[in-house]
Amino acid sequence: MLTRKQFDILALCAENDIRLSQREIAAKTKMSLGSVNKTIGELSQKGYLDDGRITIEGLEVLESYRVRRAVFIAAGFGSRLVPITLNTPKPLVRVKGKRIIDSLLDAVLVAGIREIYIVRGYLAEQFDQLLYKYPMIKFIENPIYNESNNISSAVCARHLMKNAYVFDADLLLYNKSLITKYQYESNYLGVFTEKTDDWCLYTENGYITKMAIGGINCYHMFGLSYWTDEDGAKLAEHINSVFHSPGGKERFWDQVPLEYYIHEYKIRVRECTFNDVIEIDTFSELKRLDKTYDV
To answer: What interhelical angle do 22-29 and 33-46 show, nearest 10?
Structure first.
């Protein structure tokens, strides 16, 4: 097992073709120069780095941290985006000529992830158009998407969440570098904010302690998470358990690890900015982003 600092430096070296200076590594990993120097020494001693470049042994040790698959939750109706979603599933809505989901799919492929699943329900057949550009996609049907919340989609894909990114398929991703080939631990994407009326996350020492709707000095939550092999296996059981409990069909799937079973997970917030990713919640927001809808 690698320490977090060892992983951060080794993954950074693996994802860059050129040899990075210690100052560059410090800036990108937000580590002190002293920590960078010490950690590079440790990695070199183990044979994972040679003169600042990753070795075959280094790449081999990173394999256990490789993201294996991507799962997209895309079955919902998108009621707040009416009238556009009356005829088009929200992930397929175009913003400045490009489908929302394409911003995520393109980033996944750049990261070398080709095992891709989309859970679909509303106007399911329209997702077939994605196969022309992304023939590797496999679809999972959610036959009860209109009878429950998005936990039903998670139930359909629960056995695929190990070593996997799980996406809300209606996120518009601007910063593709957020989707990396390697991940160290389970995490959710979040933006620190002084106040939000949306879903948010509270943390202690970087790890999530509570999820809430609206909060102060917390992280605005985005539906982009990663799950390790161990946590993904637990999720499969926990999602199924909550879904089949009284009122379980009305839950959001994120409530399973972040509320009902939060003490059984250690989930970090992975920080980003509002310039990196957005969720288009309403038709008014869509019109502000793309003036062609403002008619």
So the answer is: 110
Nearest to 168 by CA among 279, 15, 94: 279
Residue 16 has pLDDT above 90, yes or no: no
pLDDT in tens, 166-207: 999 999 999 999 999 999 999 999 999 999 999 999 999 999
152 CB burial (10 A radius; 0-12, 13-18, 19+): buried
Q: Which of 244, 280, 77, 85 is nearest to 154 (CA)?
A: 244
SS3 114: coil
Q: At what angle do helices 22-29 and 4-14 cross, to 10 degrees?
A: 110
Residues 202-230: b if buried by 16+ CB within 10 A, e if exposed? ebeeeebeebeeebeebbbbbbbbbbbee
> What confidence tens digit (pLDDT) does each residue in 250-284 have?
999 999 999 999 999 999 999 999 999 999 888 98
Nearest in space to 13 (alpha carbons), one of 252, 265, 24: 24
CA dist 175 and 113 (Å) reads 17
Task: Give the residue from 101, 100, 103, 269 showing the smallest Cα distance to 191.
Answer: 269
Count Cβ atoms within 10 A of the Cβ of residue 279 and give its class: 0-12 exposed, 13-18 middle, 19 or more buried: middle
For the cut 80, the answer to whether the pLDDT of residue 18 exceeds it is no
User: 29-56: per-residue pLDDT in tens?
Assistant: 999 999 999 999 999 999 999 988 999 9
Mean pLDDT of 57-80: 94
Rounded to whole angstroms, how far apart are CA atoms 159 and 235?
8
pLDDT value at 121 more than 90: yes
Residue 49, both tokens: 């780095």
Measured distance CA(57)–CA(121) in Å, rounded = 44
Instruction: Report the alpha-carbon distance of residue 106 to residue 172 in Å, rounded.
Output: 11
Q: Which of 112, 156, 102, 111 is nearest to 134 (CA)?
A: 102
